């Protein structure tokens, strides 16, 4: 069911510092910050030849990454995003398997303008999973 690795997301305590470091120390192609109010985060994508890194920084009062950054003040890997062909079929299969789909269970439009869903980290080896329909 899952296809390519779309991105690995890192929650960062200082977005500008993370961008500057990836540009200068790692020589990466770092994009511009994008506010995603529906998701409570500001994101920056780092383009790699085979995938992307997504920096996440809290946006608004009830950001879903607030608790994560309180527990991990230096930042940390927050989620991985796998591509799927049919996100509703993927959701139904996963729910039938007993996996918890987060939020309302309905896909939201993600940072790439495509539908996304999240799966509870406690159901997947402690790793929060995002699914993106491509
Ligand atoms: C823009 C879009 C895109 O790419 O298109 C995005 O990525 S938006 C990316 C931001 N959006 C999201 O993450 C949406 C989905 N996320 C959520 O609904 C939430 O963040 C949850 C995953 C449910 C966690 O919520 P919250 O931090 O309030 O819960 P909590 O503190 O009670 O945590 C419950 C347990 O899960 C653990 N936990 C929390 N976040 C975790 C993470 N990212 N990875 C692994 N474990 C995690 C906590 O340590 C705790 O474990 P212990 O009990 O053992 O201590
Ligand atoms: Co993401």
Automatic annotation (TrEMBL):
Q: What is its EC number?
A: 5.1.99.1
- PROSITE patterns according to UniProt: VOC
Recorded GO MF terms: dioxygenase activity; metal ion binding; methylmalonyl-CoA epimerase activity
Instruction: Tell me if rRNA processing is a UniProt keyword of this record.
Output: no
Per its record, the protein catalyses:
(R)-methylmalonyl-CoA = (S)-methylmalonyl-CoA
Q: Where is the VOC domain?
A: 4-134
Q: Which UniProt keywords apply?
A: Cobalt, Dioxygenase, Isomerase, Metal-binding, Oxidoreductase
Query: What enzyme class is recorded for this protein?
Result: isomerase
Q: List the InterPro entries.
A: Glyas_Bleomycin-R_OHBP_Dase, MeMalonyl-CoA_epimerase, MMCE/EMCE_epimerase, VOC_core
GO BP terms, alphabetized: L-methylmalonyl-CoA metabolic process
UniProt lists the family membership as follows: Belongs to the methylmalonyl-CoA epimerase family.
Q: What is the protein name given in its UniProt record?
A: methylmalonyl-CoA epimerase
């Amino acid at each position: 069911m899952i296809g390519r690795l779309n991105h690995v997301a890192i929650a960062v305590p200082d977005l500008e510092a993370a961008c500057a470091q990836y540009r200068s120390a790692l020589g990466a192609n770092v994009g511009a910050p994008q506010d995603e109010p529906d998701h409570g985060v500001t994101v920056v994508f780092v383009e790699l030849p085979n995938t992307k890194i997504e920096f996440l920084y809290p946006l608004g009062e009830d950001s879903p990454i607030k608790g994560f950054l309180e527990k991990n003040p230096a930042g940390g890997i927050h989620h991985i995003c796998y591509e799927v062909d049919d996100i509703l079929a993927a959701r139904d299969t996963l729910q039938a398997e007993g996996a918890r789909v987060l939020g309302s269970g309905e896909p939201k439009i993600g940072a790439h303008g495509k539908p996304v869903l999240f799966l509870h980290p406690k159901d997947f080896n402690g790793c929060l999973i995002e699914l993106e329909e491509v």
